[in-house]
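Box 3.1 A note on notation
Throughout this textbook, protein chains are presented in two layers. The first layer is the amino acid sequence; the second is a token string describing backbone geometry. Keep the layers aligned when reading.
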Amino acid sequence: MKKKSLQKELKAIAQQLQEIRLVLEKGEKPTVVGNSPKGAKDNRSENRKYIIDDEPLLNNQEACNILQISGRSLQRYRISGKLMYYILGGSAYYKVSDVQQFMKQRYSHNKEDCPPSTL
């Protein structure tokens, strides 16, 4: 049962990443997945778009929304070296491919921890 729900969740995440990649390739502003506090918007993402290795970078808010984690959890992953990041203009940014790789490692690790299903 857990395996099916994990597969369903991974498919949803893969679809979400594909949508984000399409939006970034078109150069449009990404849609916020979750609600920001008090409806506030981060206007800095509209003004600055950084690119490394022909790949657009995500800011903290975008990475949190994709990973569905808090800013503090994102910070822990940065500090522990589990998630690659770049400091530009005093802010942390993340390559989409690094976020995808982190998600694959994170979910494949959880999948291994699950006990085999018994029929």
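The helical segments are 2-26, 44-47, 60-67, 71-80, 96-113. The first helix runs from residue 2 to 26.
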